[in-house]
Batch of 3 targets.
Target 1
Amino acid sequence: VQLQASGGGLVQAGGSLRLSCAASGFTFSNANMGWFRQAPGKEREFVAAIRWTGASTYYRDSVKGRFTISRDNAKNTVYLQMNSLKPEDTAVYYCAATRSQYTTVVTTTTSYDKWGQGTLVTVSS
């Protein structure tokens, strides 16, 4: 099982980044996928999630209207498009997959049993 996140980097406030997470070793099309982030000295927090069908998406309030999660089941990849970035978005971003497609809650870390290594996003003011 592997989740390989990429696309992080240094960007100025107001800029954009697109994160990608390539999955392998499990049935990606049956997994709900999420993005979480962890800033230095803080707990890991939910950012966005997408159901295995792609029909439903979820966002934390502070990123609504700026971030968009999407998936391409043919490529076993989930994306996070981040626009209008702010310094407070600075963190290591992790992608994750749920234990089951039937997982009801997708906004908590405990719903996920597969995690990527993280990619650093730094937003300068």
Target 2
Amino acid sequence: QVQLVESGGGLVQAGGSLRLSCAASGRSFSSYDMGWFRQAPGKEREFVARITRSGGAIQYADSVKGRFTISRDNAKNTVYLQMSSLKPEDTADYFCAVQRGPRYFSRYDYNYWGQGTQVTVSS
């Protein structure tokens, strides 16, 4: 069992920055590939970014590429999402999750999820 707790969300103006954190319980964090997803009201949960267990491979959704940075600190059992140049369309609940299947972009290939943290970007 893995428990994930996201934090760092809030209200920010367009063009601003936020850093989200996802703290994981358990001793096996360094063996997990981790992803960030987001879900806006009335929309499907969508892939944002993913980082492999060692941090050696990273993928981003096209919509955030160049603006968001995913990273991790295995000593702290934490994965981060640094978000810059935020836009109103980035407004959503953001979730971290443990990848269990081969498709890093698909929410169906993740099993453990946090409760989410809300990000609101005002124009």
Target 3
Amino acid sequence: QVQLVESGGGLVQAGGSLRLSCSASGRTFPTYAMGWFRQSPGKEREFVAAIAGSWGGGSMSYHDSVKGRFTISRDNARSTVWLQMNSLKPEDTAVYYCATGVRATTSKTDYDYWGQGTQVTVSS
């Protein structure tokens, strides 16, 4: 049984930083891609960042709206992926989800397991 557990969300002022963590179990972690998505009320769940597994050389990709502000990283020995979020804006407010799949794509349908989500709120 694959399980993903996110942590690190919270309330922060605009311009501040947060670091989200996602701990994975039940799968050969280094092999698989990891992604971060977010969803705010009334909106579709959207891609934020992804990092490939060993099959994909660990390459990273980002949504244009977070490039230069967010950084995705992974530690295969600890089966953990992080999302470092800097220069946060009110429009970053959402529930953030980590997910795992075979390929590091921007499409949520390519990820087969999801965490429960962690709330990030950025005040203006």
